[in-house]
Automatic annotation (TrEMBL):
InterPro entries: NTF2-like_dom_sf (IPR032710), SnoaL-like (IPR037401). Residues 12-108 form the SnoaL-like domain. It holds the Pfam family SnoaL_2. It comes from Niabella pedocola. It comes from the Bacteria. This is Nuclear transport factor 2 family protein. Transmembrane segments: none annotated.
């Protein structure tokens, strides 16, 4: 039971910072694994710095986010996040992202995301 609370606390801290666009990276492991956003590249990006670059780009298009649902089972979790986006072309869209997490040794270790990539392609320049 202790591990479930720890994973939930890590996620709560991550999303609190993520919504503010600051302080979220403190709960990530240094060898953090991120998979998502490009179905043609299923291998994960490795490292907190590589993930930070992804989030720096992503932060330009999301205005707000909130956790819609969180299910935690030991070191595993699934979060449905609702994001409000404003794209460079002016389109404003609210959408959900499924986020599958793994924690290890008191840090968030891995994240795999699933979302509507076609909407992103249609609304962002190449």
């Amino acid at each position: 039971m202790e591990q479930t609370a720890t994973t939930k606390q890590l996620l709560e801290q991550y999303y609190s910072g993520f919504a503010r666009k600051e302080g979220w990276e403190t709960v990530l492991s240094d060898d953090f694994l991120f998979t998502g956003g490009d179905m043609t590249r299923p291998e994960p990006l490795v490292g907190k710095a590589a993930y930070r670059q992804v989030i720096d780009r992503f932060s330009r298009v999301f205005d707000a986010m909130r956790v819609k649902e969180m299910i935690v089972d030991g070191e595993n979790a699934c979060v449905i996040g609702t994001y409000d986006f404003t794209f460079p072309n002016g389109a404003r869209i609210t959408g959900d992202v499924a986020e599958i997490w793994k924690a290890r040794d008191g840090k968030l270790q891995a994240l795999t995301i699933f979302f509507d990539t076609l909407t992103f392609q249609k609304n962002t320049p190449a």
